[in-house]
Every structure is written in C-alpha cells, then in structure tokens.
C-alpha cells in the first residue's frame, strides 16, 4: 500500500465519491483503510454499566484502499504515488504529477 496513516486522501469510487479526509487507520494485510468522515456506519450500542450509556453511535467503517487516492495540496487533486531513492539510499514517496516528496 502506498498510502499510510495521516495522509489526506480523496475517495474516487463508492457512495462517498469526492469526499476528502485523513486516514485514521490502515490495514495493509487486508488492503483497507479507515478515512475520517467516510463510510459512516450506524451502530446500536447497549449500555454496559452505570457510566456508559447506550444509544446510536455513528462511526467510520473500513473501505478498500483501491477506492482512495492521495490528495496533493499543491495540485489540488488526487494523484498517484511513486517511490524514489535519494543519494544517501533512503526511499521516499513522491507525487507522480509534480514530483514533490511526500515524506
């Protein structure tokens, strides 16, 4: 997966197409991500004690990583992510449109 936690992404397919948000959690083995404000699920929670009350909770659900693209602030659109090796041997992510380093 070329995107990771903390990246700003834009949804390119599904019911939330066009929404932008920050990645809260990434699951590389399942190729899924949880994006802030995207794929909101409704969960009915029962009260489990005197301190925690029950009710309807809205929370983000995971979506497939192929349905999101990295959002480049410089280009103001979703872009593909590539890799480049620096002179000292470090591997960094780059924007394939403007060539800017992302890490």
Automatic annotation (TrEMBL):
GO terms for molecular function: rRNA binding; structural constituent of ribosome. GO terms for biological process: translation. It comes from the Bacteria. Residues 2-29 form the KOW domain. The keyword Protein biosynthesis does not apply. SUPFAM superfamilies: Translation proteins SH3-like domain. CDD domains: KOW_RPL26 (cd06089). Keywords: Ribonucleoprotein, Ribosomal protein, RNA-binding, rRNA-binding. Belongs to the universal ribosomal protein uL24 family. This is Large ribosomal subunit protein uL24. The gene is rplX.
